[in-house]
Design brief:
29% helix, D-Maltodextrin-Binding Protein, domain 2, 15 strands, binds 6-O-phosphono-beta-D-fructofuranose, alpha+beta, Fructose-1,6-Bisphosphatase, Chain A, domain 1, 6 helices
């Protein structure tokens, strides 16, 4: 069964969300999402747009959104389950930085081992879409009314960028030593605070490390397995990189007992991931 109708629905959502980002007010709603983040009206609107586009696709059995407490059944006879973060990093919109949507597509169950594809959209100066499916990471840029395919994305053995997330004050000492070690090897700091553009930059510039460790205030990290971590782990592995947790386990082997569970996570090319393993003694 082809996933094309799902990719097409994501493409339609991307245009509608891009339009909402450009034209709508950016006020805060009076509620928080399931993880406790304050919701922007745009978060809610983006969530509704995606749910509406997915409800038209009968192959989609269920959806889980970062903005909703529980998963929702769309078509009981459908096959695929999609977990998505409709507007990741949305608080960056008021300073006009890039944000994104993230989708993990699963065959039959929300388990990392059942992931068959992942997709993300970058709303930046340009609209871009990246799919990881059947062994390749394809990159599209929206130009002159259509998504133009670019070169396939592959990571080099070793990159130049270092994107360390979280508050330094709360990092464990071995994590700080690892981050400092990369800087002393000449790595350059690239961190906007938006997971989508930060990981996209590392992918397009050939490699590097994005890390979000467990910290003294957030021992299990901040980033959500189902909505952020698993989809990007799938992209990085498909591009020839690696994605692990603080124990050196592949992120795509981790269980997920609650849709909003988080994990420390490291995404990068092979050289930098080896450095993480060395620093963490795993
Ligand atoms: O989960 C939301 C998010 O904004 C991610 O997009 C981003 O990588 C992360 O939080 C940034 O967190 P921090 O500011 O703690 O580094």
């Amino acid at each position: 069964m082809t996933l094309q109708p799902i990719f097409d629905a994501i493409e339609r959502s991307a245009h509608r969300i891009r339009d909402a980002i450009t034209n709508e007010d950016l006020c805060y709603a009076d509620q928080c999402n399931a993880t406790g983040d304050t919701q922007l009206k745009l978060d809610i609107q983006s969530d509704l747009i995606i749910a509406e586009e997915f409800s038209k696709i009968t192959a989609i059995k269920a959806i889980a959104s970062e903005e909703k407490e529980e998963a929702e059944t769309l078509h009981a006879e459908g096959r695929y389950m999609i977990a998505y973060d409709p507007l990741d990093g949305s608080s960056l919109i008021d300073v006009n930085l890039s944000v994104g949507s993230i989708f993990g597509i699963y065959d039959g169950a929300f388990e990392a081992s059942k992931m068959v594809a992942s997709v993300y959209v970058v709303y930046g100066p340009r609209l871009e879409l990246v799919t990881a499916y059947k062994g390749s990471v394809r990159h599209f840029i929206f130009r002159h009314g259509r998504f133009d395919e670019q070169e396939t994305i592959t990571l080099k053995e070793k990159g130049k960028l270092n994107a360390p997330g979280g508050t330094q004050q709360h990092w464990p000492a071995h994590h700080k030593a690892m981050v400092d070690g990369l800087f002393s090897e000449g790595y350059r700091l690239r961190y906007s605070g938006g997971m989508v553009p930060d990981l996209h930059q590392i992918l397009l510039k050939g490699g590097g490390l994005f890390s979000y460790p467990g910290t003294t205030d957030k021992p299990e990290g901040k980033l959500r397995k189902l909505f952020e971590v698993f989809p990007f782990a799938f992209v990085y592995e498909t591009a020839g990189g690696e994605a692990i947790n603080h124990e050196g386990r592949r992120l795509l082997e981790l269980p997920c007992n609650d849709p909003h569970e988080t994990t420390p996570c490291f995404f990068g090319s092979k050289y930098e991931i080896a450095k993480v393993k060395e620093a963490y003694g795993v």
